[in-house]
Amino acid sequence: MPSHALPHTSDASGTAPDDPSSLSAHLAHWARHTPGRPAFTFAEYPAPALRARHRTLTWHRVDIRTRAVASRLRETVAPGERVALLCGQGLEYIVGFLAALTSGAVAVPLFTPDLPGHADRLAGILADSRPAAVLTTGADADTVSAFLAAHGLRPQLIVTDLVPDDEADGPRVPAPHGQATAYLQYSSGSTRTPTGVEISHANVVANARQALTAYGADERPPTMVGWLPLYHDMGLVLSVAAPVVRGLRSVVMDPLAFLRRPARWLRLLSEFPNALSAAPNFAYDYCATVISDEDKAGLRLDRVAVLVNGSEPVRPETADRFHAAFAGQGLPAEVHCPSYGLAEATVFVSAHRPGQPLRRYSLDREALAAGSAVPVAPDDPAAVLLAACGEPVGQTIRVVDPVTTAVLPPGVVGEIWVQGPNVGRGYQDRGPRTRETFQARLAHEPGHWLRTGDLGTVLDGQLLVTGRLKDLIIVDGRNHYPQDVEGTAQAAHRAIRPDRLAAFAVPAGQLPAGRDPAVDTGTRAAIATESAVIVAEHVRGLPAPARSPQEVAAAVRAAVSARHGLRLADVLLVRPGSVPRTSSGKISRTLTRARYLDGSYEHPERDTS
Question: Is the pTM of this model over 0.85?
Answer without folding.
Answer: yes
